[in-house]
Design the sequence.
């Protein structure tokens, strides 16, 4: 049917719909441009999520105070994470742990969404994984921090600030949800980090000096429990050696299966002996076992 043959009332509705769609597209484009501008401005002014993560890992309290609201600062003080006294501030060790170094972190996910105008400011969020060391132990603890950012009203020229923060350290993993939160990436440095930051080599060096103390690391399933911070309660998490292989070129490798008893999920963890035949087992990657 040609437009001239269409009922005038129908034609008017179609034209109105086209106008509405065009206006919606224009607003969406303006919103995306505004979000990008706010993201770039916050990153430029503060270092963005990376600046926050480096300050937390490097225990730079002054930067944390500058980037966060008083509400967040009060919460962090109540939790013992932030100490402020006599005009000075410091970042305390995270419970029984301290960050490996100021670069021992990974931005897992950043979300930039929310409003699209000065009247409805965007709110941004990020999940950050920190690598921490338990006191007097050679293993890596994963601490996951979630932060949310928005403009600090009512000042017209104020910049974005962290208005919500939560830190969870996974010392003893007993369920699949916690495992996934601690190890959101299944391969590469985001998986377990022992093969990527030199810390595994340090553990292996210690184990060669005191093999009896570190005997669990010379058996694949026991190494998985210890190095991935799994609970030893077998009614909640069970592990078993699934596969062992030795190759003259690639060396030794193994697969260990983790079963989270409560929900039934199974995870395969792949290990190797990167420091030679007499070295410890190190987890490298994992996959969900369907």
Sequence:
């Amino acid at each position: 049917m040609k437009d001239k043959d269409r009922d005038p009332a129908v034609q008017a509705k179609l034209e109105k719909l086209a106008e509405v769609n065009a206006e919606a597209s224009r607003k969406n484009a303006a919103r995306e441009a505004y979000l990008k501008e706010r993201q770039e401005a916050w990153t430029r002014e503060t270092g963005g999520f990376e600046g926050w993560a480096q300050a937390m890992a490097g225990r730079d309290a002054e930067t944390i105070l500058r980037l966060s609201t008083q509400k967040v600062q009060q919460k962090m003080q109540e939790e013992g994470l932030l100490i402020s006294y006599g005009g000075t501030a410091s970042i305390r060790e995270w419970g029984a742990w301290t960050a490996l170094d100021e670069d021992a972190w990974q931005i897992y996910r950043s979300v930039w969404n929310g409003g699209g105008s000065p009247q409805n400011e965007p709110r941004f969020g990020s999940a950050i994984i920190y690598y921490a060391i338990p006191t007097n132990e050679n293993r890596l603890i994963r601490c996951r921090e979630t932060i949310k950012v928005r403009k600090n009203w009512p000042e017209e020229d104020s910049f974005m600030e962290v208005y919500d923060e939560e830190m969870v350290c996974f010392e003893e993993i007993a369920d699949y949800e916690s495992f996934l939160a601690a190890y959101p990436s299944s391969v590469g440095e985001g998986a377990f980090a022992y093969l990527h930051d030199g810390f595994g080599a340090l553990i292996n060096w210690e184990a060669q000096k005191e093999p009896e103390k570190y005997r669990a690391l010379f058996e694949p399933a026991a190494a998985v429990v210890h190095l991935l911070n799994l609970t030893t309660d077998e009614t909640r998490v069970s592990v078993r050696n699934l596969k062992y292989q030795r190759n003259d070129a690639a060396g030794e490798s193994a697969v260990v299966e983790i079963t989270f008893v409560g929900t039934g999920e199974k995870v395969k963890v792949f290990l190797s002996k990167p420091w030679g035949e007499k070295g410890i087992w190190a987890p490298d990657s994992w996959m969900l076992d369907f």
About this structure: Residues 38-170 form a domain with the Nuclear Transport Factor 2; Chain: A, fold (CATH 3.10.450). The helical segments are 8-46, 48-57, 61-67, 70-78, 176-182, 199-209, 220-227. The first strand starts at residue 82 and ends at 85.
